[in-house]
Design brief:
Blueprint: E1 10-15, H1 28-35, E2 39-45, E3 62-66, E4 72-74, H2 83-90, E5 94-98, H3 113-128, E6 133-137, H4 152-163, E7 170-172, H5 193-208, H6 211-217
Parallel strand pairs: 1-2, 1-5, 5-6, 6-7
Antiparallel strand pairs: 2-3, 3-4
Helix pairs in contact: 1-5
Protein name: SGNH/GDSL hydrolase family protein
InterPro entries: SGNH_hydro_sf (IPR036514)
Keywords: Hydrolase
Amino acid sequence: MSLSILAGLSLLILGESHLTITGSLIDALHDDLTRQGAKVHSIGACGASAQDWLVQKKVDCGADRVGKGRPVIRGADASTTPISTLIAADKPDVVVIIIGDTMASYDKSAFPKTWAWQSVTSLTKAIADTHTRCVWVGPPWGTPGGKYKKNDARVQLMSRFLATNVAPCDYVDSLKFSKPGEWKTVDGQHFTVAGYKAWGSAITQALANSPALKEAHGK
């Protein structure tokens, strides 16, 4: 599918710390989509799970970027904003959720499936209630170990879980974009600038091929 499908579409992108660091998706993905003519509002909140976007919740750091403006990087004053409030303000054609690593609980022996299901489905329902199309981007490979204890088995489990639980959102499987360890990280989970550029480019192409954007483009 040609990337021209992105032209003129309004996208609201919500995510975790992959959208809060200079050189991360707040730059790479946002710039890619903007270059294709999309109207983009990207918001990142460090450590925020899906359900945290149903309320206003303080987080340790965050970032916000609108259109061709520069990212506003936030520290202790960062917080999430309820998804209903964001959708009412932006009226996006499509909401893009990039949440996976935060909820995978890599440092825990067992994956908290019930909590994750409640969190994910609460957010997708809130989006669906506004009759807004959505796409959920799953977590990518990282480097096993490190500060966040990321590991291949759990990231695969998280990806499979999201694939079967984010409906009515489309699912984008980031594990298909690279081989394990191909994109270098700085701490096991967060990528170098080159890694974020590669991931951002792959997400852009996946969005151009997603049913949600095709429907939005043809509305």
